[in-house]
Amino acid sequence: LLLVYMLARSMFGKSVGLAAAVFFGFGQSIVAQSNFIWQPWVMQPFFLLSILLLYQGHTRQSYQFLLGSIAVFLFAATLHQSVYALIPTYVLSIGFILWKWQKSRAYYMGVITTFFSIFSLLHLPLFFYFWRERASLFSFSNSSHAFLTIHPGDLASNLSARMKIFFDFFFVHEAIVSLSVFLLLGFSILSLVGYFYYTKQEKTQKGFMLILVLAMAQFFAVAILVSVSPLIPFPIRYFTPLLGIMVISSAEIAIGHF
User: Fold this and answer.
1) Tens-digit pLDDT profile for residues 165-188
2) Angle at CA 65, nearest 5°, toward 61 and 71?
3) What is the residue-wise DSSP string for 54-77?
4) How confident is the model at residue 72 (pLDDT cuts 50, 70, 90)?
5) Which one of 43, 73, 102, 243 is separated from 50 by 20 to 30 angstroms, measured CA to CA?
6) d(Cα 112, Cα 107) in Å, to the nearest integer?
7) What was the pLDDT predicted at 116?
8) Cα 60 to chain center, whole Å?
9) Distances from the Cα of 254 to the Cαs of 129, 160, 229, in angstroms?
10) Where do runs of H (alpha helix) occur along the chain?
């Protein structure tokens, strides 16, 4: 809750920080997380901290904050693999920040070296495990291949199903979701268009809002492409990384329009 407030306040101001904290704190899915400790719930604050460090690194032009963000991001991903779905947007954001700073190639190499070094260190126990239990590696490889197998005919149904799961997770009452998933999606898109074209927010604020929106869109693209058994619904816990940034984005859009 504190990290949601700090991130929202840093990016968009105190009013958005307070609104996001209230919305996040009273969300049904967030309150339910206090019932027990589970990997997705433990991962969430570390993921938000990595985004906060990334933002602070950009505003302060601090390379150390940037590297710290990478370390925390990978730690969050180690706690729960759903964070890995956001790697493309995260890596592009770091590349864009370094490009804005007009840094030399040595800084890019430092980021790449840090990324793979920390990734290897955090996954060292897993490497040792698979080295000793090679049968488990074969089973893991087969299940991962099945999970990532794309069935073009399922994309439309996957979109509807994943959107419904997310809105069920995000909203307090399922009655809101039952109106229409695509109606909610259409309203969200119109709100975003209005925010980017008609509000008077600063260019930097809109830039980071764009990053958050791209992260959510890219996450949904991954969720639509992955395959799960028809007998097992898509795990709702995989949407946990989106909760904080979705709340912050919604608060910024709502306050930005007024």
Assistant:
1) 676 666 545 545 455 666 777 778
2) 145
3) HHHHHHHT-HHHHHHHHHHHHHHH
4) very high
5) 102
6) 9
7) 94
8) 23
9) 48, 25, 38
10) 2-12, 14-25, 28-32, 39-60, 63-79, 87-101, 105-122, 124-132, 134-147, 155-170, 174-179, 181-198, 203-225, 240-257
Burial class of residue 45 in the structure, from the number of CB atoms within 10 Å of its CB (0-12 exposed, 13-18 middle, 19+ buried): middle
CB burial of residue 170 (10 Å; 0-12, 13-18, 19+): buried
Q: What distance in Å separates the CA atoms of residue 250 and residue 245, rounded to the nearest whole number? A: 8
Neighbours of 99 (CB within 10 A): 10
Q: Sign of the C-alpha dihedral, residues 1, 241, 75, 126?
A: positive
pLDDT class for 50, splitting at 50, 70, 90? very high
Q: List the one residue out of 1, 21, 59 whose CA is nearest residue 252.
A: 21
Picking from 47, 48, 54, the residue whose alpha carbon sits closest to that of residue 98 is 54
For residue 185 the two structure tokens come to 């999606």
Task: Tell me how many degrees the CA angle 24-28-29 measures, rounded to the nearest 5.
Answer: 80
Measure CA of the first residue to CA of the last residue in the chain; give whole Å. Answer: 24
Can you read off the two tokens belonging to residue 157?
Answer: 């149904």
Whose CA is closest to 70, among 90, 85, 88? 90
What would the mean pLDDT of 156-173 be, rounded to a whole number? 66
Written as one letter, the residue type at 34 is S
Count of Cβ atoms closer than 10 Å to residue 147 Cβ: 11
